[in-house]
Amino acid sequence: MERKVAVATLGCKLNFAESSAIAQQFVRGGFAEVSPYSSGVDVYVVNTCTVTEHSDKKCRNIIRRLHKINPDAIIAVTGCYATLKKSEIEKIEGVTFVLEQDKKGSVYARCAEILEGSPCGISSAEHIFPAISYGERTRSFLKVQDGCNYFCTYCAIPYARGRSRSVPVETLVNQAEEIASKGVKEIVLTGVNIGDYDGGLLPVLQALDKVSGIERYRISSIEPNLLTDEMIDWIASGTKFQPHFHIPLQSGCDSVLARMHRKYDTSLFASKIAYIRKKMGDVFFGIDVIAGFPGETEEEFASEVSFLKEIKPAFLHIFPYSRRKGTLADKMDGHLPESVKTERVKTLEALSDALHEEYRLRFVGTRQEVLFEGRVKGGLMGGYTGNYLRVERPYVAEQIGQIVPVIY
Ligand code: SF4
Known about the structure:
Blueprint: E1 4-9, H1 13-28, E2 32-33, E3 43-48, H2 53-69, E4 74-79, H3 80-84, H4 86-90, E5 97-98, H5 107-116, E6 139-143, E7 145-146, H6 157-161, E8 165-166, H7 169-181, E9 186-190, H8 202-209, E10 216-219, H9 229-235, E11 244-250, H10 254-259, H11 266-280, E12 284-291, H12 298-311, E13 315-320, H13 338-361, E14 367-376, E15 380-385, E16 390-394, E17 403-407
Parallel strand pairs: 1-2, 1-3, 3-4, 4-5, 6-9, 9-10, 11-12, 12-13
Antiparallel strand pairs: 7-8, 14-15, 14-17, 15-16
Helix pairs in contact: 7-8
The protein binds iron/sulfur cluster.
Residues 148, 150-152, 155, 157-158, 192-193, 223 line the site of iron/sulfur cluster.
């Protein structure tokens, strides 16, 4: 009988791409991929995240839930949380083994060994585990890079995923061609710190832009100091890279940025935004911010809010500061009460809503190209414009996976 594998993923798009690659290894090994809540699952892979305390808790809860559903299944746990808290996870009932982030590429081999009762000969993890997600018919995530050398004071990711390393450009082009051959039109480049690509990111973007069949690219996130003018000039010169940038700011106040050990200040950030706007017009900026970093005063928070009002991004991705053991910020003085963080998150959410509405309204009545992704509630289909505005229209089966002109 065909064996069944189910993969549960938490966290970032990079994790989703890697989970998809793990599932493909199992499928090539003769497994059927099923939902985690199916009966008769032989192997669970839980690909964890440790970005906040809440993510750790969610991982533990999922493991317990899966063990309850199929108590005899192998539960293999990997990912960032598995790297930082291996022994904590090993103690959870039902966990068969835990593999750190750098051994993620060996999850299938280890499970095959256990199921066959004999070593299958693959024991070492790949140095960098290439990964593509095929979860969606219209958009795939392609892993370009892994790890980070930056060691921002609040972040545990460099400890979990290790130092920066890059997938070779030839591999990426082959993977993009494979994605295109499946009819997917859009690729999102993922990584932990993509801009730190070995030898520079621009040649990668230029090589991928030539892959026929792929009509749109987005970069999932890029550090502002690594987004070079040369890269912006090239993207603006009529490439498949969409007018949509996701740039982590984390704080809009220079003293907080310095305590975070970020590699830029607000003036560099503002100048990048202005340069992109000058070259590409009214692009969509999604910006990450952390609310309530240790020692963040009312004045510092107020200066962040006024900086955000000045640069006017289209959306804020807001994270309340979360203590991560082993990081420098965890040892800093001035940790703020949860109530203060919650208040600041609320203020930023209200600002984000207002900024998004202001941005969106500027496009009402304009002609936009939408890649429709699939059916949504109410007999509608949903998709995104090039500048990442959500559009819903009455469902038309033939338009799914197609880029369709609409009046926004
Ligand atoms: S750049 Fe900073 S925040 Fe981003 S992964 Fe690296 S250490 Fe973490």
